[in-house]
Write a structure and sequence with these properties.
With 219 residues, the chain is of the alpha/beta class. The chain has one domain: Rossmann fold (3-Layer(aba) Sandwich). A seven-stranded mixed beta sheet has the order 3-2-4-5-6-8-9, sandwiched between helices. β2, α2 and β3 form a beta-alpha-beta unit. The N terminus is likely disordered.
Amino acid sequence: MIAPTREKRIGGDAVKLGLVSSLNRPGGNVTGTSFLYNMLAPKRLELLHELVPNAAVIGVLINPKNPASQSEATDVQTAARALGLTIVAQNATGDHDIDAAFASFVHHRIDALTFAADAVFSKHHDQLIALAARHAVPTMYFSRDFTAAGGLMSYGGDMTNAYRLAGVYAGRILKGERPGDLPVQLTVKVEFVINLKTAKMLGLTFPLPLIGRADEVIE
């Protein structure tokens, strides 16, 4: 069963990734909830550009072992071209790679940073937040966890709703229903979270329209 845990969540297309035959009829022994992370990459870039409109070079951190991240990187490149931005992409699969990637970002003098949604980055979220703060890089994350821990802002699927849906399915399966007969549910609710305290530390001011669109403001 697909369950939205910190280690497993990817937010990619379950069909393209070969996890299920189709969303309506998964087949096999896999079903659950699929939530919006990877497919929101262009919107994350757009919001980041709205906060720092003078930023011309944007860093993107990618886990090359995650096939969903590759498609997300392509979407970001397309969105960046439409906004007239230059993308500097770096790969990372663990903590040492993350340090090296940030060193490269500093070398390329990026103006802002975003990530391809990946469980590896969720696992190392404290390290990522600390590096972004150390180098004073405005950063857009893909999950509320980052913003609650001190990250600047995030835009991604609502995990509370995803957990609730997964729990409902767990109960139905325990009562005898076959996972392959239960459609994969797409959690369409997203949340935009901003951290004003972190913005102040970076010398940034969120425009009022951007604050007004936030689902949560951390002060």
